[in-house]
Specification:
By secondary structure, this protein is α+β, with helices and mostly antiparallel strands. It has two helices and six strands, in the order E-H-E-E-E-H-E-E. The chain has a six-stranded antiparallel beta sheet with strand order 1-4-3-5-6-2, with helices on one face.
Length: about 110
């Protein structure tokens, strides 16, 4: 297993859609259900297990196989919104063809 530290973005156009989805589906998310966020179809398709920690305000940890320099800004934005909403733990976050999905694992 490869674990890498990634920094949260300082700004992103994806914060607002992620925030709206979490606001409307917070209970479902915490129950382990997958929430989906529709975005434009551009961007890298990636999947990661992200660990959001309350003691790390600048970064999060991911278990992944991809090059961190080319990691999806959509996934980074989703991780930041989770942190800002005090949703800590492990989440599976993936982006595929304009659909960003988030699922709470533990």
């Amino acid at each position: 297993m490869k674990v890498t530290e990634l920094r949260y973005p300082s700004r992103s156009s994806f914060f607002a859609p992620c925030q709206r989805a979490i606001d409307t589906s917070r209970r479902d998310l915490l129950e382990g259900k997958i929430i989906k966020i529709r975005l434009s179809p551009q961007g890298y398709n990636r999947r990661a297990i992200a660990t959001i920690d309350h003691d790390s305000p600048n970064c999060f940890w991911i278990d992944k196989k991809s090059d961190p320099k080319r990691f999806s800004s959509r996934i980074r934005a989703a991780a930041y919104v989770l942190y800002e909403n005090e949703l800590y733990g492990e989440f599976e976050i993936s982006h595929k063809t304009g659909i960003l999905t988030i699922q709470f694992l533990k």
